[in-house]
Amino acid sequence: MSKCQVKTIYEHGKLDYADISDCFNSEDFSLLERFLLKNKLSNVFDFQKNHLKAKNHVGVVKYKNYQFEILPKFLAHDGDDKEIVLKNLFHMLKFTKRLQVQESTISSLSKSNNPFLEVLISSYTTSLLDGYLKSVPKNYKREEDNLNFIKGKLNFNGNIKQNICNKAKFHCVYDEFCEDIALNQAFLFVTIMLKKITTTNENQKKLKFIENILIDVSFKQIDFQKAKKIVLSRTQKTFEYPFELALMFLGNSSFEMSGRTFRSLAIVWDMNKLFEEFIFRFMKTNKENLGIAGIKEKKGKMLFKDSANLFGESLEGATKIGGTELDILVSLVDGPEIIFDAKYKMHDGERNYFAPADVYQMVAYESLHNTNQAVLIYPQIVEEQFMWKHKLNSEKENKFIYSTCIDLRKDLKAQNEKLTEQLKKIFMALTQV
Prior knowledge:
The mean pLDDT is 83. Helix 4 (116-134) packs parallel to helix 7. By secondary structure, the protein is an alpha+beta fold. It has helices at 26-38, 82-95, 103-110, 116-134, 156-163, 182-197, 201-213, 224-227, 240-251, 271-285, 287-290, 356-368, 416-431; strands spanning 5-10, 14-16, 45-47, 51-54, 57-63, 66-71, 139-147, 153-154, 170-178, 253-258, 261-270, 292-302, 323-332, 337-342, 373-379, 387-391, 400-406. Among the domains are: 139-178, no CATH class; 286-431, Trna Endonuclease, Chain: A, domain 1 (3-Layer(aba) Sandwich). Strands 12-13-14-15-17-16 form a 6-stranded mixed beta sheet, with helices on both faces. Strands 1-6-5-11-10 form a 5-stranded mixed beta sheet, with helices on both faces.
């Protein structure tokens, strides 16, 4: 295996093309950009004339013999404090149930010098090997074959078609108790995929060992939709954790393949979605302390009630165009319903720091869901927590949009109470309107 060069970039950080010109040329960057666009990953990198810029995804992108590791910047006071960044990232993945790992493991992994993805691969290989060394999952698989003897049931139609002139053969349908089942096929696919991207000898050896264990398993391309339909039996419960990791890899991966070879591979997490889900889970877990009576995620509503063609035939009912889906809808015990929208982007705490599209979105949400309060919540990058209240310019209604932040830059596991207090402070301000 040739030596792979790893380059770590933090969100919104830049990488000059000149820094990797020894193994990348202009055509390579064009092909990499095309690969990301094809797989709807245009938000991973912004390709400029002389540099590329990491945007709002974290993870790993591998192309040719170069590997880009992207880490979140908003998870530590100093973006280069890799231990805190990794520890908080693992905690957020665990808290949102995207990664099942013990806290002691998170602590040791975050101190590792290995790149972010190598930590996850190591956890996958170790847990999967532990299971396989005890027993390889097997199950009955329906087979159909032309045999020299009768096995299972004779397939009369198939036998007539294939053996009308050969009475020594029997076309049979039978159940074979074997290892070539969907669960092992999924593990084999993920194992070969990870072999493409790992850079450590230890992970490479373990992945090769797993591949040898599964020598009799068919190689099939498995995507996330296929894999999540797999149901583990009672005897396969020891494989729950590696299977969760396999689903995580499949659910966040994009690739180009030729046979069993991965030409390009990206395993990335959208930090916008992770931040939004973390805020929701944290509020839901601590709802009693925060005075929340009810909380809903991803509440959707159509923008248009119905449509009419004023110069032709009208169609009743809501149009499919214009659907909206807010992040979080909170009902307070002693207060109104409040819309929360988590925005994983920089906010410098200034009153007028707004993306116009975010404001228009909040105005639409308030109108559709009949509320008068909507909150834009950002990761904190300034020293003091802020909360701006903005009254909409309307003579008929009192509607407000707020911008605020929460601090993700310290040990999130240890600072659980501080995060709760920050949210309490926000809710208290909202109830005093």
